[in-house]
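DM from R.C. (forwarded with permission)

"hey, sorry to bug you on a friday — could you get me a structure for this? deadline for the figure draft is monday and I only need the backbone to look sensible"
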Amino acid sequence: MAIPTSFLTSTTKKTNLHKLTLTTILCSVFYFIGFYQNFRGSIPPSSATIDSCALSIRNTTLDFLPHHSAPHTPVTVARVHHLHPCDLKFSEYTPCEDVKRSLKFDRDRMIYRERHCPEKKELLKCRVPAPFGYRLQFRWPVSREFVWYANVPHKELTVEKKNQNWVRFEGDRFRFPGGGTMFPRGADAYIDDIGKSINLTDGSIRTAIDTGCGVASFGAYLLSRNIVTMSFAPRDTHEGQVQFALERGVPALIGILASIRLPYPSRAFDMAHCSRCLIPWGQYDGEYLIEVDRVLRPGGYWVLSGPPVNWEKHWKGWGRSPKDLKAEESTIEKIAKSICWKKLVQKGDLSIWQKPTNHIHCIAKRKVYKQPLFCRSQDPDKAWYTKMENCLTPLPEVSDIIEIAGGQLAKWPERLTAIPPRISRGNLNGITAEIFTENTKIWKKRLAYYKEVHHQLGEHGRYRNLLDMNAYLGGFAAALVDDPVWVMNVVPVEADINTLGVIYERGLIGTYQNWCEAMSTYPRTYDLIHADSIFSLYQGRCEMEDILLEMDRILRPDGSVIIRDDVDILLKVKSIVDGMQWNATIADHERSAHEREKVLCAVKQYWTAPGP
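My reply, with the result:
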């Protein structure tokens, strides 16, 4: 009997449908089995995460792991390598200013107090501990006056400077009355005296440098006048002076005027200050004043108090002869004239000079002052282990006697967002006014995103001392201008373009740094560290672990880190910091989850050395 064609067609269709369904089910089962095995075998164990930086603000679980391994590559479970704490004797370790290492170097010109970093085989592979009893610092502005004794357990200055109103020990804390060797009435009154001769309130003076800063009371009290000061002093017998400054929430670095340039670009500061800073300004053919001239902007000021100013009144107290002090005063006056500075005032214990706004007259004066000659070869902004030269840094050329060399700076706060002269004049290859403006907008958006995924950053007053390890144009710091924080903007010496001059033209501060070496600062300096593409920049130059250990050294307990970089790099970073008592998670790029660049947020756990 013949079977109808329609019946065969229907049966065939059902059979094919059953096969297709069965095939789909089997494929799905094997897919999920494979996914489960791969999931278990690929993800490294992680430490506890922090709610403040969720893996994604979209409440989704993202797999950031690379899935493009070469064929037949075995997949292994990553093991967390735990980096143990260092011995308590390293609680104040400053690798490049180590006292024992410094004794190997020449004492002439204080060279032994300059940076002398350990060799690779000498690097510590451990985490520097906070001293037992360490407490979170007072919040600004209370921190300007108070520091916990347990955080900087050194009473030497309270004895050595007890008659100079520097610092007093009161129970479990230090109190800083705001005094100094040459301002016993307090820094506020002293600054008011300076303000009678130069305008400190109209925004024309924004950046200052304090050489031999003590506990940085000068810089601390300038902040209320919207002047931000780079204070520096060596690590010497005045134990802990820079450390006190940082605990107070005041910008400072370990540093000294010796044989190499200060780590700042030319024309950086609106005002330089020395109050009995013990720098021999008249020696070495005036090289130290010539270096101050390099970092002063055209029209900037140099303020000097202490020896030899007003020596007629103070010579007995200084323990020096009138003849010696008068000779030093004469030498300083001669050097200042030779570099074309004009003395504005000498009143009481203060002397103030001003640098010319351009070098038209100074060039003509070379017929009278044969020395110093103008420098011809060196880049004036090059200042990382760069030897000082006994020559005057020439200002950019001008066409008119009233023109300001290098360009007129806007007054603060307009200066922050105005196009910096180095950019408007085309001095930085590839960086235009449009790029600068767009960069400023981008960082406002990024900061808002950071405060979403890392709520501590949005908590007013929680953080004070911030570090940007790769600042570029200073956009991160500029976006934070309304927060009660200051930012140390670092331009790595390996960066393609030297942008630190632009940062200073914006009215911000910063320094040069090679992140294969330690920073010239004490442990526990910063409350928050920001690192944009820093590990991509140093890939192949030095070990990621060493950079992270340096970050851990200079980060306070309970401090935070925000790192932007490629996802593969951030996974490597996380595998290391999971063994450093950091709680770390990874979040999306602020623009899209599909961007390879991600953001790692981490909080350093609060821990200290064990008690005695």
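R.C.: lifesaver. The chain has a mean pLDDT of 89.
me: no worries. The two ends are 104 Å apart (CA to CA).
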